[in-house]
Design goal:
By secondary structure, the chain is an all-alpha fold. It contains ten helices and no strands. Helix 1 packs across helix 2, helix 1 packs across helix 4 and helix 5 packs across helix 10. The longest helix is centred in the first third of the chain and has 24 residues. The model has no long low-confidence stretch (mean pLDDT 92).
Length: 193
């Protein structure tokens, strides 16, 4: 039984590595089988479908991203935590593009509850926001805005979407500073509740 678990782990890691090389959407059972040097039908001993394999990659990637964020956040709070969190997020997206994409696939509530990595990302995100003293719907709205801002930036960066000669790193730093200011003043006067 341990061998089966070990092989399933190898299959997931091989699929994640492949995703980083060729793109998450190009991960197939046959491609992973070739990498591992096994016949494609043997893959079904370890994974039922390509959808299940991709969900396994998502869980692995979420754990790895959570580890990166956790290391970056250690001993930090407030703006320092926001900067560290954001940089870890961006670095992961840049160095592990297929894994990063995997962290965004749609999982059911049950699948999310079983994914330690996704739960850790959620907990670390809340920890990073603690200094901004947000709760309830304000916290939900702020988390959504920050997540979409970071994701949008790294996605545009990954496809070469910043054609202006302005230094992209400077834009990133100014964007994080703007997010910090926004969070310290959340919500703005007259905001809908």
């Amino acid at each position: 039984m341990a061998r089966v678990g070990l092989m399933a782990s190898r299959v997931t890691t091989a699929a994640a590595d492949l995703a980083d090389k060729v793109g998450f959407d190009k991960v197939t059972l046959s491609a992973v089988a070739r990498i591992l040097g096994i016949a494609e039908p043997s893959m079904y001993s370890h994974v039922r479908s390509v959808a299940e394999l991709r969900k396994s990659v998502a869980a692995l990637a979420a754990t790895e991203l959570a580890d990166c964020i956790g290391e970056a956040l250690a001993g930090r709070a407030g703006k320092d935590a926001l900067v560290a969190f954001s940089n870890a997020y961006r670095d992961f997206a840049r160095t592990c593009p297929g894994r990063y994409t995997a962290t965004h696939i749609q999982l059911t509530e049950e699948e999310l509850s079983r994914s330690t990595g996704h739960q850790l990302i959620f907990a670390k995100t809340l920890a990073m926001f603690r200094a901004y003293d947000l709760s309830g719907t304000d916290l939900t709205d702020a988390v959504r805005l920050v997540r979409s801002s970071l994701h949008g930036f790294v996605l545009l960066e990954s496809i070469g979407g910043f054609g202006h000669p302005r230094d992209v790193q400077k834009s990133w730093e100014n964007g994080i500073e703007a997010i910090h200011v926004m969070l310290t003043q959340w919500p703005s006067p007259g905001a809908a509740r």
